[in-house]
Amino acid sequence: MLVLVLVTISIFLVMHLLPGDPVLLYVSQEQLATAISEEQLTHLYHKFGLDKPLTEQYVDWIWGVVHGDLGDSIFWGTTVRDEISRALPVSLYLGLIAFVVGIIIGIPAGVVCAVRRGKWMDTVVTFFANIGICAPIFWVGILMIYLFGLYLGWLPIQGYTSPFDNFSLSIRQAVMPVICLAFMGLAGNTRQTRSSMLEVIQQDYIRTAWSKGLKERTIIMRHALKNGIIPVVTLAGMHIPRIFGGQVIVETIFSIPGMGRLAVDALFSYDYAVVQGTVLVVATIVVLCNLIIDISYGWLNPRTRYQ
Q1: Do 71 and 277 form a contact (C-beta atoms < 8 A)?
Q2: What is the pLDDT of residues 29-56, one digit of tens each?
């Protein structure tokens, strides 16, 4: 709760301290060639609640949030809740797939590297993992658009289609954005899993398991992986805010109508309520995911429950 309160204060102050006036931008869009009087400007400031002191504006916004009202958009004439309800499923769809891809590929790749340390497979996977850590998301996205979209013509370069409307097209449109979002998480999970497993497999109980003649699969899955997975789970939790942060870039590059694109459009329009509501919803999701990961420690490692 403290984190969420700090988020609300920070985003509210940042938005209201930015140079620019949303009312003047609103007037320039609605009345490009029409002169507007001072009384009309005063009415607009009052309509959007911008004539009140900052403290009163913040209290009114928080009071609305507590009651499920995130405010109204200045430019789109809709409620912030409607805009978020339209954009949030898109971001969750892409983000969840990217997170799962980073887990189901990154962890097994790290295990293989640790078990086959020094072999050619370890060298190749570690090399690509190091590249994945360093490569910027926007650069990877632009390269993929050029290679798979423009040059080879295999995948569409922009847009989003719900999997319930056209599953095949939805998957094809999601391939490049998901790869961009999962790139750093996959590489990080691979490196961390490899490092954790190398520490675990050198422990005495692992050597005892080998000496007892247990199968390699049993030793790795039942003894080594479960004891070395805690740092990997922690790192995976740290990738959740990176995925949502990366969606701002990825959704802009691929023209995807998700939370990231919504926040960017609202920010350029100085639409205070939309930006504040978007950041608050994303922060809430990140906090809840981190809480779930903290709780999962006790299930993964019983010693954590006793501590």
Answers
A1: yes
A2: 555 445 666 676 677 677 767 777 778 8
HSE of 199, CA atoms in CB hemisphere, 13 A: 12
- Domain annotation for the chain: domains and CATH numbers: 2-66 (no CATH), 83-306 (1.10.3720.10)
Token pair 């040059």 is at which residue? 151
Instruction: Look up the pTM and report it.
Output: 0.76
